UniProtKB/TrEMBL annotation:
The keyword NAD applies. Pathway: Nucleotide-sugar biosynthesis; UDP-alpha-D-glucuronate biosynthesis; UDP-alpha-D-glucuronate from UDP-alpha-D-glucose: step 1/1. It holds the Pfam family UDPG_MGDP_dh_C. Its EC number is 1.1.1.22. The gene is ugdH. The keyword NAD applies. This is UDP-glucose 6-dehydrogenase.
Amino acid sequence: MKIAMVGSGYVGLVSGACFADFGHDVVCIDKDQAKIDRLHAGVMPIYEPGLDALVAGNVKAGRLSFTTDLAEGIRGASAIFIAVGTPSRRGDGHADLSFVYAVAREVGENLSNDAVVVTKSTVPVGTGDEVERVLRDSGTPHLVSVVSNPEFLREGAAIGDFKRPDRIVIGAEDDFGREVMREVYRPLFLNESPLLFTSRRSSELIKYAANAFLATKITFMNEMADLCEKVGGNVQDVARGIGLDGRIGSKFLHAGPGYGGSCFPKDTLALLKTAEDYESPVRIVEAVVKVNDLRKRAMGRKVIEALGGPDEARGKRVAMLGLTFKPNTDDMRDSPAIAIAQTLNDAKVSVAAYDPEGMEQARPLMSEVEMMGDPYSAIDGADAVVIVTEWDAFRALDLNRVKSLLKAPVLVDLRNIYQPEAMREAGFAYTSVGRA
């Protein structure tokens, strides 16, 4: 089957490469000529473990190609996926759907055969109805079914998530759409991946509801961490104790500096706006968004307290290890590191930072931060070190070397990757999250 993937960003490129690996003929389409040129040269526009090899292998096999020509790219395609960005719109927080509708219009004007048009982008409820109207108004004489097929890819583990999914959600309103999508995902039947068919609107809501629920679990544990610090508890013990309950589960119960990334911040905000539009408020999600926003700067203040308070911290220097919102990605979108660094800068604390993959993305967002070539260069001469992202490279630091490079043995661990007892024995003034 020929598949066209309009949009060669994170979702489009990973999805397109995986579909090609299933044996489909995939064309990835993007208006950014520079991005397409880099892809032709084998240079990935994003960092995702294993993606470069997956793309190279399928390009070599002739199953994956790239173009800026949408009309040529969709010619003969049975399924045309829309995988363009839907960022939060400036001013009101609604998802910006202008790119989605622009693609739908261009697809309708250039369609040369019957096809299923699939919204892979994360879109609010009712977007598929509007895409259908745009296609109809384009005057295409061909049979078109509009389907919702949300993605559930974790950055840093996207290829595995795509090939071994918990579920595949397909929102379709007719048999044509359902049958084509069954054929698209047929290779996954061998893995017995559950194929969940729903209405289109239910499918659109499932994506937002899933992300809002996961964001709620993270935020709940962050508040429990604060309570643990007050009462002398250990948030990791609490997380294990409740996570063993099958009704709750152990995932997304790790306390830290707050969630960020390409999905949770914008999707929770978009869900709030949809709820407002339909006069059906989601108070829990409102609280999650507010608590998460406040937490990031609170983590900056936690570092300031570890330096002795605002007066003592003034003029000092902090080494920040980790900038991306999570490990195994170069994504800086809404990363806690941004707000933490800004809080430190506002308190007249300078910051030297290192991240294995995210520094190029971080530079334009953190102009006051000095980027260093390795963790020890960042630590050298600092008054404290703060671990913001739990990259593997930071899990086994040479603690003797770290202590010798620091002006004072102060370490703030916002990801709880070290044990308090061991750090005290190593001679550090150690601060973590939710542990006395």
